[in-house]
């Protein structure tokens, strides 16, 4: 933990006596997020719900708190962040949600929150929602846990706005019942298992998201360190991590982990106001079915009860991934810079620090297939860069499905390889056919639209032109920039993801499977510490490690025992090599790359958050 002396020595803003304000509400909690995702429908017997989340506090004491409940949620995906996930239809509000009680629990003691002096509040659909009253409790020590218990209900069949996927390994729970009294009893058994009917699809994107407070602010011994309002998309608000992958402080994704890492000037308190799919051109604008301004109006409410002081000192802009357009002028000016213009107008004088987006590539190449007997000849016009004899390649898209599958290849030339199959009556194969190496090597990747490396002044290299303009602060698109490139890129090729061969790996120490029929759910490895739950892994035959045996997802880890999410039968001999997947789609990093980026950006860059 960084103490006041070391912080002052590191931070010139504090060495002159400190710049904090104990009477100013600031963002303080890890873990909190904006409502977004898929509506939850109340079922019979569980229409009364208690959601318990756990947040962690900053590196200074906190004591006075306010929490917010919203009456809407935002979309995710291509039209995010439209605030149109509602219980009714836009312009025609649906059912309300009754918050029956809300408590925070610190150091084992419950403290009840109130709403305008009452213990309950009704949150109406398509409204900004409600704030708790000011709650002052005994000082909460730095880097502590605070549990937030929300008891709420609707009628059976009514809808509830989605917010949190629960992180069970951190003590978070969701309980359901047909009445409030049954739920209140869980205060005596705070680690009782969640209600099975509500606790489904854990650690997946389809895990239900339950209602809870989104905006959270606190007063305390704020020491003047930066507090960030982070505008993010799916790269910042972790599309490939959901719940079980959270660290000890509840962080998912590289951006939260980097901000909350105890390095440089210390942990940076923050609130992320975006969600997966967020696009700059759609953020902080719109009305009706395109509205994306309610969250920002709630920020204004904080400023109003905060003596006209904002709950943050800097804006961290991680956007840009979803701003691509056919022409770079639209990409940079119409899309990316439009949000910057609105932010500067709304928060005049607040510093904007931008993070250039990561690149986007594909692990597939278009291939033509012909066959003679049981031998297929595959030809890739763009070259087979990186493919080697003995490697497994995934063939898909052939109309004649006998050509498709995971095949072991023999390289026959710079543009061709062969593999064996059962034979086909049709040659050449038809369809849109691709050959995929699953990001084993950087050399095989191809550039997606607008992502061609290097930036060359053309529209094709738009992503990297955006990076250059952010680093150069072109047209005041930011005040400072923190580059992500070196932490992300392959060590063997510019502009692409690291290949699996560049990431840490381990080996199987006890054979899994016996005959290819009997299934198993665990894999014993030499070092499971390099993995985390929700990480996809690939097992390759040793010692060369290029013939793929299995691909699966980690459900949990205990010591060096990996429990996988779906039973497998493929035999994994001792010495088989286990590698983490890189990305499912060339856009969103899996956990191994999330860690690579979070650990690769220097913590000293946090100094740029100061005015």
Automatic annotation (TrEMBL):
Domain of life: Bacteria
Gene3D superfamilies to which the protein is assigned, alphabetical: 2.40.30.20
Protein name stated in the entry: SGNH/GDSL hydrolase family protein
């Amino acid at each position: 933990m960084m103490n006041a002396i070391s912080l002052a020595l590191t931070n010139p803003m504090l060495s002159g006596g400190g710049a904090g304000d104990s009477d100013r509400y600031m963002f303080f909690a890890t873990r909190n997020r904006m409502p977004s995702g898929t509506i939850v429908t109340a079922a019979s017997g569980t229409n009364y719900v208690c959601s318990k989340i756990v947040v962690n506090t900053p590196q200074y004491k906190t004591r006075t708190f306010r929490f917010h409940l919203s009456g809407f949620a935002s979309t995710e995906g291509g039209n995010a962040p439209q605030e149109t996930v509602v219980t009714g239809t836009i312009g025609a509000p649906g059912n309300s949600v009754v918050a029956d009680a809300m408590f925070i629990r610190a150091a084992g003691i419950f403290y009840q929150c109130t709403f305008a002096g009452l213990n309950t509040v009704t949150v109406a659909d398509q409204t900004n929602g409600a704030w708790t009253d000011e709650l002052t409790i005994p000082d909460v020590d730095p880097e502590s846990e605070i549990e937030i218990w929300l008891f709420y209900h609707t009628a059976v069949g009514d809808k509830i706005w989605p917010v949190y996927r629960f992180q069970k390994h951190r003590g978070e729970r969701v309980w359901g019942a047909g009445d409030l009294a049954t739920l209140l009893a869980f205060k005596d058994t705070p680690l009782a298992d969640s209600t099975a009917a509500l606790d489904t699809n854990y650690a997946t994107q389809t895990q239900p998201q339950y209602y809870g407070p989104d905006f959270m602010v606190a007063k305390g011994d704020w020491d003047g360190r930066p507090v960030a309002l982070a505008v993010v998309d799916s790269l910042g608000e972790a599309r490939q991590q959901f719940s079980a992958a959270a660290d000890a402080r509840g962080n998912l994704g590289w951006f939260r982990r980097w901000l909350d890492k105890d390095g440089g000037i210390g942990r940076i308190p923050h609130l992320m106001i975006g969600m997966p799919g967020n696009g700059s051109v759609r953020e902080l604008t719109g009305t009706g079915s395109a509205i994306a301004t309610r969250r920002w109006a709630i920020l204004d409410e904080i400023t109003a009860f905060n003596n006209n002081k904002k709950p943050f000192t800097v804006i961290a802009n991680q956007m840009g991934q979803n701003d691509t357009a056919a022409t770079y002028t639209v990409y940079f000016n119409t899309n990316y810079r439009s949000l910057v213009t609105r932010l500067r107008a709304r928060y005049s004088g607040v510093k904007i620090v931008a993070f250039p987006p990561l690149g986007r590539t594909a692990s597939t190449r278009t291939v033509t297939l012909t066959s003679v007997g049981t031998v297929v000849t595959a030809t890739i016009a763009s070259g087979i860069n990186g493919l080697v004899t003995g490697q497994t390649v995934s063939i898909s898209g052939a109309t004649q499905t006998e050509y498709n599958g995971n095949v072991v290849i023999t390289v026959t030339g710079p543009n061709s390889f062969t593999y064996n199959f059962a034979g086909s009556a049709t040659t050449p194969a038809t369809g849109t056919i691709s050959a995929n190496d699953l990001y084993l090597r950087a050399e095989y990747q191809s550039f997606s639209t607008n992502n061609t490396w290097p930036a060359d002044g053309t529209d094709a290299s738009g992503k990297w032109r955006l990076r250059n303009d952010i680093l150069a602060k072109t047209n005041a698109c930011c005040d400072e920039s923190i580059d992500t490139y070196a932490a992300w890129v392959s060590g063997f090729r510019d502009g692409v993801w690291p290949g699996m061969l560049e990431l840490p790996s381990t080996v199987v120490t006890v054979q899994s499977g016996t005959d290819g029929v009997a299934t198993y759910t665990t894999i014993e490895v030499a070092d499971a510490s390099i993995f985390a739950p929700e990480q996809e892994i690939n097992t390759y035959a040793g010692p060369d490690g290029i013939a793929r045996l299995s691909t699966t997802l980690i459900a949990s880890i205990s010591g060096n025992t990996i429990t996988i999410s779906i039973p497998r039968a493929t035999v994994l001999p001792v010495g088989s090599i286990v590698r983490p997947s890189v990305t499912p789609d060339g856009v969103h990093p899996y956990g191994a790359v999330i860690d690579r980026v979070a650990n690769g950006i220097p913590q000293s860059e946090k100094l740029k958050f100061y005015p």
